[in-house]
User: What shape does this take?
Amino acid sequence: MLNYNVDGPIIHIETNCLQAQICTEGYVSGVAAGTLVDKRTGAKDLGFGLSIVDFLLEPGEDEPNAPHAYHWGDKVHGNIPKRYVELPQICTQARKLPFEVVKSEKFIAVRQWFNWTIATRGRKPGSLWEQILVFPEDARYFFSTDRVTSVNTVENLALRVDMPGHLKHEQGDSFSQIYLSYYGIIPNNEFLEDFPPDAKFHYVRGRDPLPKRIIRAYQTRIGPWLAGMTLNPKDVSEAWCHQRGYVCFIEEVGQEKVQAGEMFSAAYIIGFFDSIEEMEKVYDQHYGWSNIVLKPSFEKAETFVGIHD
Assistant: This one.
């Protein structure tokens, strides 16, 4: 089975293994909250959506009274100074995304895009974000890639995403444990009280050893794990896993020098797995992907390939 239909702003997708919805208006980007369904077990994602996208930012402190200042120094953002580069936050403020859908014999793909409209520190707005989601016919997971083409030259440009997506719960009721490949297994009782992102379970590229894999997952109460796997570990500059009323799975990719007109990207696998070993096996089959391209073109797609950095 490999079907899709577009019902107003909602794209409905069904494969042999998954059901999903993509909202192109309202809260946008990625897969809509609670709509990724594992047909084998009935498990669903437990947050605000999957592969959700925010804004462009960089390390550093804003000047006093700077417009569009980034708020930090509390349990929400921790003691981690950053500055916005381009806004708005796509998921909550873009409101409507253009899109296109293509169906091949073996997968369905969705492309969405947005140009940021606000820039800081004398820069130009207009950098382009593109996201492609690929749903294979016979997999319990889907592929995602985010690409940013910058209109500015920025020394350390990063894209903030939610990977796999935030996790809603009440005192750990919806999940049993979390797995971070760069840390290990964490029981749900570590997330009963709020704490800032830099208090624990905080990964920073360069400060911490580069892990073999970047896998972030939670185990649902009915058994399956929901994992988000960034396929090139070098693409992840920072990763949070902290409690702020829900488990926040913010991840930042890039944070590298980008010249005006240049592009950077990251690629992911997101979906359901029965074990950590299964996650690792699938990860290793696609290790090193930083981008995903449909061939011979998106409109005439017959296959998709991973691009290594």
Remarks:
- Residues 2-308 form a domain with the Beta-galactosidase; Chain A, domain 5 fold (CATH 2.70.98).
- The chain has one domain: 2-308.
- The chain is about 5% helix and 50% strand.
